[in-house]
Write a structure and sequence with these properties.
Layout: H1 3-10, H2 13-24, E1 51-53, H3 69-73, E2 79-85, E3 91-99, H4 108-112, E4 118-120, E5 135-136, H5 138-143
Antiparallel strand pairs: 1-4, 2-3, 3-5
The structure holds iron/sulfur cluster (SF4) (2 copies).
Length: about 150
């Protein structure tokens, strides 16, 4: 071992070099950690997340005409549309079930909907503690995802 190497080891040169590199990344402009959930990360414009069954913005009536096309389009057969005939022989939506646990978010159901009633929103917080909680009924779908908003 040469004298230079010996001095380097005695004065912990490598350790201080490492520390210098580490602390050079402590400045705020070099921090890449996302402060989630305080700050929600932006998602891609075409991201497909939690589903929502849209209502008419003024009347509040469902936009869904119970045509069942979304259910037919779904390769996983996870959408069940319930309907009944009104007195004037029109189809009326009664129930709507969407099993999120089996969904692969391909968007085929959304594309098949002729009236834009079914929409895959940009909400990504769909984890749940039970399989049953992943099955959304009509009320949950109409209410849409309700993510908890955390504040500093
Ligand atoms: S996104 Fe795809 S898998 Fe999920 S319900 Fe729609 S069609 Fe089915
Ligand atoms: S959500 Fe759209 S495609 Fe599905 S039953 Fe309703 S209107 Fe038809």
């Amino acid at each position: 071992m040469g004298i230079n190497e010996l001095l380097r080891r005695i004065f912990l040169v490598d350790l201080f070099r490492g520390l210098k590199l580490t602390f050079s990344y402590q400045r705020p402009s070099a921090i890449y950690t996302e402060q989630y959930p305080l700050e929600r990360p932006p998602v891609a414009e075409r991201y497909r997340g939690a589903p929502r069954l849209n209502n008419h913005p003024e009347s509040g009536e469902t936009l869904c005409i119970a045509c069942n096309l979304c259910s037919i389009a779904c390769p996983e057969n996870l959408i069940v549309v319930g309907w009944a005939r009104t007195e004037d022989r029109k189809k009326r939506l009664t129930t709507f079930t969407y099993d999120l646990s089996r969904c692969m978010f391909c968007g085929l159901c959304e594309d098949a909907c002729p009236v834009d009633a079914l929409e895959l929103t940009q909400d990504f917080e769909i984890a749940h503690y039970s399989r049953e909680g992943m099955i959304w009924d009509r009320a949950a779908l109409e209410e849409g995802p309700q993510p908890t908003r955390y504040t500093r």
